[in-house]
Amino acid sequence: MERQKQRFAAVLVFGGIAFYFGLTHFNTVTHWISGLAGLCTPAVIGGIIAFLLNVPMTAIENGLKKLLYRRHPEKAGKALRMLSLLLTFVCIIVVVALAVLMLIPELRKSIMSVIAQIQESLPALMDYLYSLGIDTTWMEQQLAAIDLAAIDFKELASQMITGASSMLGTLVGAVSATISVLGNALFSTVIALYILIDKENLSRQCRKLLYAFVRPELGDKIWHVGSLIREVFGKFLGGQSIESCVLGILMFIALSVFRIPYASLIAVLTAVCAFIPYIGAFLSCGIGVALILLVNPLQAVLCLVVYQVVQFIENQFIYPHVVGSSVGLEPLWTIIAVLVGGAAFGILGMIFFIPVMAVVYTLLKETVNARIERQKAALQAETMDQIIEQAIKTEEEESED
């Protein structure tokens, strides 16, 4: 008891000293914190990348175990893990390459169509301006009024040199920033690879570290919450990826059947924007309709109708079974999570507040169920005590008689 008092007093004294130092040297402390955050940024990003890649890698690894080690899955070693990681990167590269190959021709086609529409409508626009009495010859007059002899070429040359030097400084800054970002991305990827390859050993070390500094009961609760977060987020990412692919394929088939232009572009946009619940559908639909409106207004209306029909089918029959059931969250709480996450953190909040709400919902449900079970047990024990007392009284009364 005396040692605990001394430890508490030491913590209080050193904490007060640290707080006073932080207040008196605020700029120095913030500089240290920012430098430490900069050093830890690759590790944090690497952990996030590993967390995201762990979902497809685990699915591929489990599939390979069933295929190659059906009878003896315990024999699967690091070679299978490396193969699963390699196949995960291959799948990501293939998906990105297919998306780019589908997007570039469609983007080029849309840009050329917009330019052609502008060229076709420009004469009509000029005629319309003339019909309104708007004279555009003022542009020619402004150009003709430029006096080349009045230009000070020395001043112009100095301005050009100054602009070139500032542009060079901006270019150097952009190059250095790009190199820094690429370096952080490389280090983060390497850290993610090491985490994924040796994730069981890291998990065991984290668990030992946790139980070394907290009580076993608290350690069990913390580990349970962490496991629940990993499980819910993994299911959410997996379900959302499947749902996005299914929706993109359905949209491409439907638009192609009705021969609507930019079918592949709209399908890819739909698959990407599907990660943003509710808002993503409106965004991809609006972009698609706007592009088709430049080509054919009637097809734009048809695209809007087809898009909404496919989206309705997907929301009613696919999304609840794929994503909703994967995280165990009711539609009402899903909408609340999207609204709260969007208001607090924007698009990222809309995406990731659904699994956060699922974790909170699951923990709250477990707490409520545990309290109800304890109350039931206490009530049963109380009832049992009353029954025993009544039996004793009855026995005593019978013995007296």
TrEMBL record:
The keyword Cell membrane applies. It is found in: Cell membrane. Pfam families: AI-2E_transport. It is a multi-pass membrane protein. Its main location: membrane. The keyword Endoplasmic reticulum does not apply. Keywords: Cell membrane, Membrane, Transmembrane, Transmembrane helix, Transport. The chain crosses the membrane at residues 7-26, 32-59, 80-104, 171-197, 236-256, 262-283, 290-313, 333-364. Belongs to the autoinducer-2 exporter (AI-2E) (TC 2.A.86) family. This is AI-2E family transporter. The lineage of its organism: Bacteria, Bacillati, Bacillota, Clostridia, Eubacteriales.
